[in-house]
């Protein structure tokens, strides 16, 4: 089944208070065939907190123009719901993999650092700093997407590993007719899914890269790891709430914070690029040895 849309659910665990996140493709849509008073449709999902293991029932209601949610039995505990609609993204499937994702990244991050020096402010409530953070994430996500898509497009072993690991792809059912008519059907299916991946979901990316190429994207150092994961929550606040947390308070983003975060991202990108370069070198060596044997 091709995924046309996904829903991201965010709330604070009522037990431990940590942020909880869940993704699903199975939320109802409003009943457009009904009269105006009965258009809403509700459902209940079970979501588990990764920090303390507490399971909570979340009531989600589809309205005419949006979705709303709360912890079942506690309407005051709001669940934020973001709808990701991929139905207009078919053109992505026609794109060839980027030939030079790392050089594209280094060019973009160099320009970003210039903008940080020119526009970044010491104040942690600066709107400029929020825009710079969102742009920084965009640069990183573009590199990760291009790098992973390139690996899946070029290397059968990586493609198979991603399929075996991926929560959606490993249970994907396809027809033999589709496979017979298009020898590249499976590869195209995986690449299409990867192009729609939210690459700021670092724990998801970390699991995929670990399974596909035996590399941890998230740093092993706990403080650095926590900083990277916390940054994704700040990004969400900037993109979806104009820089405010769930309580309406402005999240603090200083110029120094942005510089440190960019340095952290840069170290992770450099390690991934070195790993990919090593894989390419080993592939070329294997081909050379095979050619010698054949000769």
**Biggest beta sheet attributes:** 6 strands, antiparallel
**Into which percentage range does the β-strand content fall?**
15-25%
Q: How widely separated are the two ends?
A: 46 Å
Q: What would the principal axes of the Cα set say about the shape?
A: globular
Strand order of the largest sheet: 2-1-6-5-4-3
Average the pLDDT over all residues and give the rounded result.
86
Radius of gyration equals 22 Å
The total count of strands amounts to: 6
The helical percent reads 40-55%
User: Structural class, judged by helices and strands?
Assistant: alpha+beta
Structural domain tally: 2
- SSE sequence, one letter per element: EEEEEEHHHHHHHH
Low-confidence segments: none
How many DSSP H or I helices? 8
Give a structural overview:
The chain is of the alpha+beta class and 295 residues long. It folds into two domains: 5-85, no CATH class; 91-294, no CATH class. The protein is 49% helix and 16% strand. Strands 2-1-6-5-4-3 form a six-stranded antiparallel beta sheet, with no helix packed on it. A hairpin with a 4-residue loop joins strand 4 and strand 5 (67-71). It is globular, with a radius of gyration of 22 Å.
Q: Summed up, what is this model?
A:
The protein is an alpha+beta fold and 295 residues long. The chain contains eight helices and six strands.
